[in-house]
Amino acid sequence: MAYFAEIDDSNIVLRVLVLSDKDTQDENGTEVEEIGQEYFHNSLGGTWIQTSKSNAFRKNYAGSGFTYDETRDAFILPQPFDSWILNEDTCQWDAPTAYPDESKVYRWNEDTTSWDLISDGWEE
Question: What pTM, to 2 d.p., does this model score?
Answer without folding.
Answer: 0.86
